[in-house]
Amino acid sequence: MRRGDTWLSGNGHPRQAEWVFVSTPLVVSLSGLEHRSLDSCADFAAELDRRHVPLSLLISPRPTDLDARDHRSPMLSWVADRVGGRDTVSLHGFARVSPGLRSRLAPAARLPAHEAGLRLVAASAVLEQAGLRTRTFVPPRWLASPGTVLAAQRRGFSVCADAMGVRDLGTGRVLRSRIRILGPGEVAEPWWCRALVLGAGRAARRGRAVRLAVEAQTLAKPAVRPAILDAIDLALHHGADPVTYASFATARPEAERVPTPRIPHEAW
Length: 268
Description:
Oligomer: single chain
Distance between the termini: 39 Å
Strand content: 15-25%
Radius of gyration: 18 Å
């Protein structure tokens, strides 16, 4: 990030950033963590360790996968080990609801603040039950409604990262930077991998933030892992600085932080 990057103030009007960042941020996130993909995730994380690149681990609030009572859970143990290093955890999406209720709820991209707030409370409770705490939020499918952003701020979250930027909820500033992702429907096309590498390198060369989103289930695909590592290497070659989404948070006084209410298990 450099002088001249576009930010948005709290009221939504664009303004020029007053800060100067010497280097360009590189953020690599990993989502879709499951027991069956854990080996691929561990191998990928080891490659990033050799490059001194931390991971933003996007954890979905699914009680079945995050059962804190299962102390033998290899996924929870692995996540705890990674967080003990340089990696950080981000809440990814909301807690699942019953099929009947889902049909009456607004899509994530159009959630009003009140409904989004209730979902955030439930989702945060699931992570806390598993021993994980975070003040960084990534909405479902990287799409956040204005109400969701407002609810995240009210619930004490510090950062909200969506498809088009990273928002510091403490100051209201937004770094405009689109997410680069190879999803399950794209991995069959080798040119998608090539586009990812070239796009990441071009952005880093121009001093723009590079945000790579990795789906755990795609790491087993032959072309995906090499392409992601090539994109990371190219961004590092152009001087990108590896960070996590938590790095975008501005420190807030303890008195201003909103405690996360606890809810009963039956409300998930």
